[in-house]
Design goal:
The chain is an alpha/beta fold. It contains eight helices and nine strands. The protein folds into two domains: about 80 residues, no CATH class; about 170 residues, Endonuclease, Chain A. A nine-stranded mixed sheet has the order 2-1-8-7-6-3-4-5-9, sandwiched between helices. Helix 1 packs across helix 2, helix 1 crosses helix 3 and helix 4 runs parallel beside helix 5. It is globular. It starts with a helix and ends in a 6-residue tail after the last strand. The relative contact order is 0.14.
């Protein structure tokens, strides 16, 4: 039989990482001060649903116990985030003498581990079946997926063929771009290649999101797990979106 504590434990387990240590401490302080009645007001649209689930699951538990639990979880998350692991990632040929992590495999793992939000940024993109399958699975499990891509107009003559965004059409992801009228001059390019999962993992690579980029070419990158780098990368993109520097693309016509 599921108890109120079981439901609360499950709610915290699902949403604690998304809220992060500082928001968990804020929620704990509210329980200490006001009990469970105040709700998730003030957490913003992005985090209000997670705060609401935890608040609702805690209604039949003593507020003091809930606050202590949340503070303990915040401390545990802070320790985990402080433990940074960095791995080298390569595309292209490998040798048995020096084993390396492959970009295609790492990219699939980063996408596959996302549970709440996923951010991708790339210069060039082409339809790459393994990535499309991983993104479709992420959308199916209700992950918010944002993909920031360069445009043919923004790249000038450096990219030809279909728009890079076409590589992601039909997947239900959010597509963003850097409008040319928001660039300092006509030489500015959207050249970053990153993937961020749940603000806990950050893949920074020279590889574009194409078959050649993640598999065939010799490309190099770093996978950062923990620490502040994944959070700061996502926050920087959030700020660019909020300022209008990056803007949503219109959905293509069927």
């Amino acid at each position: 039989m599921t108890t109120p504590l079981d439901r609360f434990d499950a709610a915290v387990g699902d949403d604690a990482a998304r809220l992060g240590p500082s928001r968990l401490r804020t929620l704990a302080a509210r329980f200490e001060r006001d009990g469970a009645g105040l709700g998730p007001a003030g957490f913003g649209a992005e985090f209000a649903d997670a705060a609401a689930r935890i608040t609702d699951a805690a209604r039949r538990l003593p507020a003091g116990d809930v606050a202590a639990y949340l503070r303990g979880m915040a401390t545990a998350l802070a320790h985990r985030e402080a433990a940074v692991r960095v791995d080298m990632v390569w595309s292209g040929p490998t040798g048995h003498a020096v084993p390396v992590r492959a970009t295609a495999q790492v990219l699939a793992q980063v996408v596959g581990r996302a549970r709440h939000e996923l951010l991708l940024m790339t210069y060039s993109a082409r339809r790459y079946a393994p990535l499309r399958a991983a993104l479709a699975a992420a959308v199916a499990r209700n992950v918010r997926v944002r993909v920031v891509v360069e445009t043919l107009q923004g790249a000038g003559s450096a990219i030809s063929g279909a728009e890079p965004a076409a590589a992601f059409h039909g997947l239900g992801v959010e597509l963003w771009h850097w409008p040319v009228d928001r660039r300092p001059d006509d030489t500015g390019r959207l050249h970053a290649k990153i993937a961020v999962a749940d603000r806990r993992e950050l893949l920074v690579s020279s590889a574009n999101l194409t078959q050649s980029g993640v598999h065939d070419n010799i490309e190099a990158g770093l996978l950062v797990r923990g620490g502040t780098a994944p959070v700061r990368a996502a926050e920087h993109v959030d700020a660019l979106c909020s300022a209008g520097t990056l803007q949503r693309m219109h959905r293509p016509r069927p």
